[in-house]
């Protein structure tokens, strides 16, 4: 459902010159969201009033009162929310009892994203998020406006931020509302006429495969938590071991009489059920999160859309992508599946990592990386390993305490099993550090720094040398005496480091990267 011209005009006049209100249907969306939080109290009243004579009217009266209160609060809240697109900033005023007014300058806005949760989506509404890079409560949110209005706001704010629409800023100061409408220009409110190129998409089959890889037992934990909170609804005490023993000795006694073989089969069936629940949970979460996953390259940047119930629409400008991360999993790597994430100044679900290809082959990832001005390492890349001393010291610091504890266990504990287990742990730590050293690599080319880390689950990280903020050589007491150091790179939105480099190599890499940073005048870079 979209705003009509009359609704927009009426809302603007009611809010004041240059000010606008959110969509009137936001009252319904906020009221229904508040009603969601009241379901448990209504259920509690329903069960608590079963023994009362007048229960037939208590529950409807209680539920009706809660609905009326939610709608009243939602209406009052809507009346107290207004926003204005100014010449230099966007302003939002809201608050029912405690009034707040925020003005965010356009230069501080990293990105503008749209989010549609199930109820607002049914009503054709979106929540607009103005991301400042500060995260958490410092982000500016506007809920709810129509989808067309949200996309128009996104285009207007981006144009004003990037200085594209020179006439827009002057016009906003004069009148405001009609300027914002014209800022969308020829692209229109939905941006459909913009030139775009699809870089990646996932259909149902790819989603199903991704869900199978994302095995999760979160459903077991949720059911356990719900059982603990709602155990008063069950006919017996769920956490009483004696009652479970009584149940097994009654109807389940036949299983105990079948012997150890049947018990093993029963355990196998229970494990299989847990596996099915884990796989089902992973598939369900994946379909809810990544349904209709699409990544497009537009003149504004990389546009990612996904979600079944909660739909998100995020645009990441290419110049704000600081680094890329190519990851995989223990099973995924067997079939060549990887994921690609952008490390960006903007935030995505309280994380600076934007997943732009959750499950893809390297030949699918390479074009996306090139569109973001990154290049995957070639087969003949000049890889370097960290210092042998670094991994040796790591192995000794982990293995020596385990070996000492194992020796003490052999002396003071009659059984040899704890001591042998601790010695086995020490051996595992040494082997682990050796394999990590074999598989850890770093490289430096003309434009990028590259890190490949991990043994069972390798991860490739690439950053642009020019976009780094600083380079630091860090040493601790042991590394100073042993002659190696960590090279830490200042990266907006993420972290990047080469560990265990020799001092000479660390100094040479730092000088090369600093030369790249100093060779660019950042004040003249295109925004």
From TrEMBL:
Keywords: Membrane, Transmembrane, Transmembrane helix. The keyword Cell inner membrane does not apply. Residues 78-155, 298-358, 444-511 form the YdbS-like PH domain. InterPro entries: UCP026631 (IPR014529), YdbS-like_PH (IPR005182). Coiled coil: none annotated. The chain crosses the membrane at residues 55-78, 207-227, 260-284, 395-413. This is PH domain-containing protein. It comes from Alteraurantiacibacter aestuarii.
